[in-house]
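Sequence in, structure out. Go.
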Amino acid sequence: MLPFAQLGGFVSEMLGYPFMQRAFVAGVCIAVVAPLVGSFLVHRQLAMIGDTLAHTAFAGVAVGIFLGNLLATDVSPYLTALVVAVLAALLIQILSEYTDVYNDVSMAVVLAGGFALGTVLISLTSGGIAVSINQYLFGSLSTLTRGDVELLVVLSALVVAAVLLSYRKLVYVTFDESAARIAGIDVRLLNRLLVVLTAMVVVGAMQMMGVILVAAMLVVPVAAATQLAGSFKQSVAYAVVAAQVAVLSGTTLSYAYGIAAGGTIVLVAIAVYLGAAVAGRLGVVGAG
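Output:
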């Protein structure tokens, strides 16, 4: 009975801190929307767009910090990151539609440009800003404010609503874009919707995961799910479960051992992926 009593006391202590309550709410939201959108990206071989938009969101954070210093006013770096990331997402799509470059080239151009802009803007600010940028690069549980979590909840609700309303069309475009065009579906609009939703997820998750690791939550849980699922819908469900396990376990371990939350969550997600891969090989669950 003692271990259970100790566990109960540990959980009560952990959830007694407001910053941990906010962290778990944020984590649950991330673990729903990241694999939900990531499922479409992975099956369309666009997994790297998350990393591209995360680095571009870094430029958005730098814009917010720079403007705040320049205008001597309070500018939310997350709001500017959201605006810049959405614009970058649309730019990637437009470049792939109207130029001869492939998606990976347009993503590489936007990634390099976004990160370069961020570093230049940070270099134009005072030294203290360069230090505070670490929380955006690596994420932080303790600096999550009520406003940050409220923004994430709103973004998550919008993403879930958009996916539910356009689910059938998104699936159609994901697996057979040419047939979708013939069927009269506005493929261009859906492609732009998907990249905008990705930008929203990236900026929302960046608060907790950081720029460097945020893209992992779009990809790793989905990769785990595909090892076990027998259909796309089942894959989405498994991916959300895998992400929840990673986020809840990783956040708890981060608190217990005083280690980085973002890195711990990703390592747990990778462990889940490896476990799913072994289970898939052994035929524990239906074919993936």
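Check: The mean pLDDT is 87. The two ends are 41 Å apart (CA to CA).
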